[in-house]
Amino acid sequence: MPPPSADAPLILWFRRDLRLSDHPMLTAAVATGRPLIPVFLLDPETEAIGAAAKWRLGLSLADLSARLAARGARLILRRGPALAVLEALIAETGAAGVMWSRGYDGAGRARDSAVKAALRARGLIADSHPGFLLHEPWTVQTGQGGYYRVYTPYWNAVKDRPVAAALPAPHAWPAPAEWPGSDRLEDWHLGAAMRRGAAVCLTWQRVGEAAAQDRLAAFLADKIGPYREARDFPARDATSGLSENLTYGEISPRQIWHAGFRAMQEGAGGAQHFLKELVWREFAWHLMFHVPNLARDNWRPEWDGFPWRGDNEDAEAWRRGQTGEPLVDAALREMYVTGTMHNRARMVAASYLTKHLLTDWRVGLAWFADCLTDWDPAANAMGWQWVAGSGPDAAPYFRIFNPAGQAEKFDPGAQYRRRFVAELSAAPGETAQSWFRAVPRAWGLDPRAPYPAPRIGLAAGRARALDAYAGLKADTPREGLE
Ligand SMILES: Cc1cc2nc3c(=O)[nH]c(=O)nc-3n(C[C@H](O)[C@H](O)[C@H](O)COP(=O)(O)OP(=O)(O)OC[C@H]3O[C@@H](n4cnc5c(N)ncnc54)[C@H](O)[C@@H]3O)c2cc1C
Predict the structure, then answer these.
(1) Which residue's CA is the closest to the ligand 1 atom numbered 44?
(2) What's 13's domain CATH number?
């Protein structure tokens, strides 16, 4: 096949990189001088994501579409398996090939490798670019050339590594002579599985590139100083909230890193801790790149014999925010109403499910994946395995969060619990009441019903968990800790 002509367009395959600034793929594509055709594919992998993430993706696509339109470009939407759809688009447009930003999960990498091989075999451009992480996972290696299993050495390995400057958004680029046809975003019904929850959750979303930059600016202006101490208190608005925007690539980790680094140099108290949290995200993806089944299998194989309970009635009560443990219920309700959950609340809710309710961490992981608008496959898997005790660098199983003790310490005035659990107040606020409007009617919940009794006593649940743990054989990691 003859090489594509110099003025043949390029297809830009957008995925979790729905922004225009600090976008290495877009910058490289503009540098070719070719006309550009931005595309988003609803492929089977994307069809399969959870209800909240899929709905929130639609909001992000609408934002990117508007940003492109302001530059005289369009976002072309197509549905179907990636390679087949891309090949059809190439045939329709005479494109020279495709560029995309790399992903790091197992299924995505397999798909991308197949696309790359097939297009290159035809002499077409098929180039992948970074943009989702600060450091490509294979570039950070231990002294022995392996991957890091423990966070602190990982942090030490990357904390002084140079991070390239963020790239400006290109202002303009050539459009194709003719735009290919596009699906209509509304026809994809990305919010279908959210049902009535969408109307409630919508008010909590901060969608798109401009909103993400505003969020970063607001965090730097007011919150970064006390971040280290304040970040553990779920009633306080003390963290950045950027996980929602990072999930869809509305902001790049590089932009956040440089802003945090500057704040650290200017003496902002909590800045280094903030950078460390951002690096937990990096570490999660480093792990997922090297252990692609992180969301599926216990990282420590001896946990395969642990007597987890599969899905069960207690787990259903947990999902429905009806455990009778106010901090746990507040956490689950926060997630349903807002699409996110405070980090401390995530740890307490996950510990309660896996320890007091002795339920398999994968049951909880799946519910988070369905309800979080900041769902991140790597951070979610690492978080669940960390709490359960089965993961790399995990909390030891016998570290069982006591929800009542955690509530006393981190929600001393019960503001967080009352904000989300209507039954705890004589005159509940709008947020607590909105949860009843968001949950499925089929749950049959009535705001006037009394608050449920605890599913299990905290001492009894703890004792049962420790008994089960005593039966587990010695703690040997699957791949050997560093
Ligand atoms: C069981 C469990 C499940 C989790 N699932 C997810 C998930 O699906 N998506 C997700 O983004 N995070 C997840 N986390 C991590 C953490 O709870 C969220 O990243 C954090 O609450 C996001 O709020 P923020 O953006 O205000 O964070 P900030 O405190 O402002 O931190 C800045 C950024 O650092 C990163 N970060 C912070 N803490 C962590 C962490 N513990 N692990 C990985 N990255 C971190 C996030 O990208 C975050 O946006 C999970 C944690 C647990 C314990």
Answers:
(1) 281
(2) 3.40.50.620
